[in-house]
Specification:
Chain A has one helix and ten strands, in the order ββββββββββα. Chain A is mainly β and about 120 residues long. Chain A has a single domain, classed as Rieske Iron-sulfur Protein. Chain B contains seven helices and 25 strands. The longest helix of chain B has 18 residues. Classes of the chains: A mainly beta (about 120), B alpha/beta (about 375).
């Protein structure tokens, strides 16, 4: 489990990005629920923590793809692949993330970069 | 569905989502299934995205549509309620979505000269990519977004790049004079020459382009030329059909045209904007994505719906690693103020106002702040 942040430091309607590789973001919805998903949009390189949080959905800040925070599913294109979801545990006021063991769906430009620039 | 790009695909999806289970025919003049055009001037041209990455349909997505690709619509016959195709076939329809988009404007008298490109389609992008791989000198005619993105990509590929813009300031239309100057200063930041306020007289070269000849007598040597001087709506095929045309297809606030059971969406559609009380043809990707839902609702309800308020027009651009985002309309603004960051750092948020009321927001390398501003802006505007 990775400690993400103090719950009191993450107000409702806000997101906190963990700068791990690939980055993961914790969202605190207006209804008080906590979700963790991969931070990078599966369409192109953009941080979903910078996006538009509404209900249980986040809209990518660049091209308006929408992802369901509960399932990671694509709710609106242009993204075609889901983001991974991660488990959240809150203990003693600290938000922890238990990372998914699935392979991430990173956008082609990011995958190419991680592979050493071979595109 | 006449048109098989983003607007046509979005309309097809909306029809199925709204429970339309009848026959659905999608007519497209390109041979390709729907693909994403914005990367054509950026990642695809740079080689970091492959063709397969451009597909707009999801794996396994099934719209139960018949795709008539590589064939152009030649006419609409209102009495027979049919689309006539250029290859002689005819498609009967109870409802028509016009999504024929726009075509790149060209320079007269440049046909047949090798090394001269426009950039609109996948085939255009393939051809340009092959020419850029030759290296050398690229001259981009037109300092708009397509021209600026091509210049940026070619610069990153190591070419010697010159941009020629007829107006005194590039991007003054979409961004206004002040911010047009700020954004187009990115060229100089990277050693790309920008020549403004000078028109192009013609191109030099016998079989392959060798130079761009300017109206002031200068000649700019070129191995490859990209003409990025805007696009015109593809609506010639509707002449005489009874569908009213005026800078594209003239539409109401929900895409309805002058003919019943015909709606128009995307770059070819000149929608009525209730906010300004005028018609506006928006050539933005997000408009092609979002507006078909309203048009399809009007089509299925036979016009019995009240059009909702569309989200304010939004577009983005990527140049020289800088993220540019814009929402609203700069035209008509009487002031623009930088509210966060600084233009010198190429990282800022600027708000356009008219009589004190925000009418547009520009962000440069500020996706988080921009999203917040856009959200507030959308709420305030509706």
């Amino acid at each position: 489990m990775i400690p993400a942040c103090r719950l009191e430091d993450l107000p409702r309607g806000e997101a906190h990005r963990l700068d791990i590789d690939p980055p993961v973001s914790v969202f605190h919805t207006d209804d008080g629920e906590l979700f963790a998903i991969d931070d990078t949009c599966t369409h192109q390189d953009a941080s979903l923590a910078d996006g538009w949080l509404e209900g249980c959905e986040v809209e990518c800040p660049l091209h308006a793809s929408k992802f369901d925070l509960r399932t990671g599913a694509v709710d609106a294109p242009p993204a075609r692949l889901p983001v991974r979801t991660h488990q959240i545990v809150v203990e003693d006021g600290t938000v922890y993330v238990r990372l998914s063991t699935d392979a991430p769906n990173l956008p082609p430009c990011v995958s190419a970069r991680l592979a050493g620039g071979a595109a | 569905m006449v048109g098989a790009s983003l607007a046509g695909l979005s309309a097809a999806r909306s029809l199925r989502q709204r429970g339309y289970d009848g026959r659905l025919v999608v007519i497209g003049d390109e041979t390709h299934r729907p693909y994403d055009r914005p990367p054509l001037s950026k990642e695809f041209l740079a080689g970091t995205l492959r063709e397969a990455d451009l597909a707009l349909e999801r794996d396994g997505e099934e719209l139960h549509a018949e795709w008539l690709l590589g064939t152009r619509a030649a006419g609409l016959d209102r009495t027979r309620r049919a689309i006539r195709l250029a290859d002689g076939r005819e498609v009967r329809a109870d409802g028509v979505v016009v999504a024929t988009g726009a075509a790149a404007r060209t320079l007269p008298g440049t046909d047949g000269l090798a090394g001269v490109h426009v950039l609109r389609t996948l085939d255009d992008a393939r051809a340009l990519r092959d020419d850029l791989a030759r290296g050398g000198r690229l001259v981009v005619i037109g300092g708009g977004f397509v021209g600026a993105e091509v210049a940026s990509t070619a610069y990153a590929l190591g070419l010697d790049v010159t941009v020629i813009e007829a107006a005194p300031t590039p991007l003054a239309g979409p961004l206004g004079q002040a911010m047009g100057a700020v954004v187009s200063a990115l060229h100089a930041d990277h050693g790309v020459r920008l020549l403004c306020g000078v028109g192009v007289k013609g191109l030099g070269g016998e079989h392959r382009v060798e130079a761009v000849l300017l109206e002031d007598g200068r000649s700019v040597p070129a191995d490859t030329v990209v003409v990025g001087v805007g696009a015109r709506p593809c609506v010639d095929w509707l002449e005489g059909s009874g569908v009213a045309l005026d800078n594209g297809v003239r539409c109401g606030a929900d895409g309805r045209t002058s003919l019943a059971a015909v709606v128009a969406v995307g770059d070819c559609a000149n929608w009525y904007d209730p906010g300004t009380g005028s018609h506006r043809r928006v050539e933005h990707w997000t408009g092609a994505l979002e507006r078909p839902a309203a048009a399809v609702a009007a089509l299925l309800a036979h016009g019995a719906t009240e059009p909702g308020v569309p989200r304010p027009p939004y577009f983005w651009s990527d140049q020289y690693g800088v993220k540019i985002q814009f929402v609203g309309q700069a035209a008509g603004a009487d002031s623009v103020t930088v509210e966060e960051g600084s233009t010198d750092d190429r990282s800022f948020l600027a708000v356009y106002r008219r009589a004190g009321r925000p009418v547009a927001v520009l962000g440069m390398n500020q996706p988080r702040l921009f999203t917040r501003a856009r959200k507030q802006f959308g709420t305030a505007a509706s």
